[in-house]
Amino acid sequence: MSDEQKMSEEDRMIEEEFQGLLNDYLNSNHRRKVDIITRAFNMAKEAHKGARRRSGEPYIMHPLAVARIVSREMGLGSTSISASLLHDVVEDTDYTVEDIRTLFGDKIAQIVDGLTKISSGMFGEDVSAQAENFRKLLLTMSEDIRVILIKIADRLHNMRTLSSMAPAKQFKITGETLYIYAPLAHRLGLFAIKTELEELCFKYEHPEVFADLTRKIEESAPERNKIYENFAVPVVKALDKMEIDYEMRARVKSVYSIWNKMQTKGIEFNEVYDLFAVRIIFELSPGLDEKKQCWDIYSAITDIYKLRPDRIRDWVSHPKANGYQALHLTVMGPDGKWIEIQIRSRRMDDIAEKGFAAHWKYKESRIEEDNELDKWLKTIQEVLANPNPNAIDFLDTVKMNLFSSEIFVFTPKGEIKTLPQGATALDFAYTIHTRVGDHCLGAKVNHTLVPLSQKLGSGDQVEILTSQSVQPQPEWLNFVTTAKARTKIEASLRRQRRRVGEKGKKVLDELFDNEPIDNTVFNKILHLYKAENKEDLYYLIGSNEVVLPGNKEAFQKIKSAEPDKQDNLFVRYVKQAMNAIKKGPEIKNSKEASKGVGDEPSSVPIPMMPPTPKVDRKSVYSLTESNFRKNFVVPLCCNPLPGDDVFGYITEKEEVEVHKRACQTGLKLKSNFGDRVIEVAWGDYRQYSFLASIVFTGIDRIGILSSILAKLAEGVKVNIQSVNVSSNDGIFEGVFNLHVHSAEEVNQLCAKIAKVDGVSTVHRSPV
Fold first, then answer.
1. Where would a tag sit more exposed on the chain, N or C end, judged by fewer CB atoms within 10 A?
2. What residues make up the domain containing 743?
3. Helices in 2-161 by DSSP H: which ranges?
4. Is the pLDDT of residue 373 over 70?
5. Active site residues
6. Does an H or E element contain 392, and which?
7. What's this model's pTM, rounded to 2 decimal places?
8. Which H or E run includes 397?
9. Mean pLDDT calculated for residue range 361-380
10. Does residue 21 belong to any structural domain of this protein?
């Protein structure tokens, strides 16, 4: 194909994609502002002319794809579509925000400006810059929610085309997506997008496991279909009798959520009982109450099948904080299988799939849950008003409540407050008002006095007791869970510290007759009282932890009483030598070493470790062993074994730390320190062994432990570190901690234990 033919083919492809975008828009219920979308497309096409993506396709295909996600999958209108088409123009070309404002008005310019400010994402070598980008993202989001919606759409398309990236880059992007973007999509109610982001991350992080689970789901389809058909027949008959306009279908859990459940509960695929859920979506009949219709359908189903009472979830009366509404119940189906049912109206289904973006469609109804977004954005604004000076802590503080399960708690007057799972009485106090939290003395939960650290449950009625004499304490940070509470407490503690510091500064200034203190003198004072900086010194003085002498001349006397400087130097050299001996290779001649310690400081032999070679971040790092040592670090957070899906993280010491791709600590590292993430490859290990845990349960009987140990010893020498077995009411639980050389070895041992009569479950512990 000639260059001219290729150009013509690409122009045709671009035009088809644009027409598809216009069709999506025209099929929506938005006003027909085709002109502004066309102008935005023409500008973006011209601006990105000649530019190409890493995949080789024309760059304009990316903003077009983002605009289609925004239109078709989020249901947004012409302003958002136009901003999506232009979202990279200011960042990548010579056009400015002012040019956008002149041609398209203030609103589109504001959104594009917000997108440009956060275009670099959360990656970068400077961690503070990463968190600052995240702060900008939140700030622009609180001003116009469409900024983050378009940013999520941008991330979704990048994830859909991630295959063109190098593996190390894929790890970085998937880490950031799981850590920030998927929780944000969840918090904004974008269920379908959240699910796809998680699914794509899982596909790239664990390709083999993803393929295996996908195959198993497909293979189990005939059995699921049979269960659904047997369940559906009487239900369809009952609903048709009610003359309801509805659709009913079975929805399979996402591969990621199935795998996540397997990991957290330590179960196999065939033990996941809720592989699918039945969803009933009805059209609201004129003149009927939406909530009543949900309960009418519930009543019809529970007349047919036995209900599991502990699995009822009424999100209709009390919507989730992201606007989600539905009635969930679990019943025993005709095949003896538990079946989850979700009952929703068409409006509820739209909001469940498209989140807050769908609320614009139903604005005229002015339903109560429309305010949930405003409530959350207000919380974000409060957090931004007092950001944590520590960049990573700030990022984690905001993220804290993005992906939490929710509970509903009542005030003494019966008002409902939504809190994350695990929230305490103190969190509740700050939810009421900052002043209530700051002066919180205690709480009554269901009329019983409890400590501030008391965790709350759904349905609790909470009364907060306050006193003006109470102030936030540092230990409060140990048990609060909400971003608002943590931020307000930290801000108050900083104010308290400043006030104490001002008092201390005044005392020191008065000692020196309010004359400027020479820097040399000040440094001596800092050294004398072991203070890091001026602020620390002022605080120590103000809090009476440091008592100053009666006059400034006394400083000289105190200073002269210090140990000789040479002695201090000697001590430092000895300490240095001893530390080096501990850390470095053994000194060959121990007599010479002991002699050196008693000589002059300059003669102390300090054994040196060879300098750690710098890791090549662009190549695959080989994880090897030599002389019973390894060239990598195994962290305790996830305890990876050879054969696990892992990535490498380069520490500040230039050591390579190996984390499972699913490790929560690793996820944080990928998102906060993306530039240090590398691709690694396992080697073959014969010398070095790794600690692993095998958990097993079963029916207790005499000699079962002996049978298990005998089975383990068949054909292989097993190095068991410890065994812990307990029995209760005829059921035993056991844990083997043992040394192995690979994950495959653990799988073989699990298979052996599973063959023992009486053992019901056996699996490797995830940590």
1. N
2. 690-764
3. 3-26, 34-47, 61-68, 78-85, 89-92, 97-104, 106-117, 127-143, 146-160
4. no
5. 91-92
6. helix 391-399
7. 0.66
8. helix 391-399
9. 50
10. yes
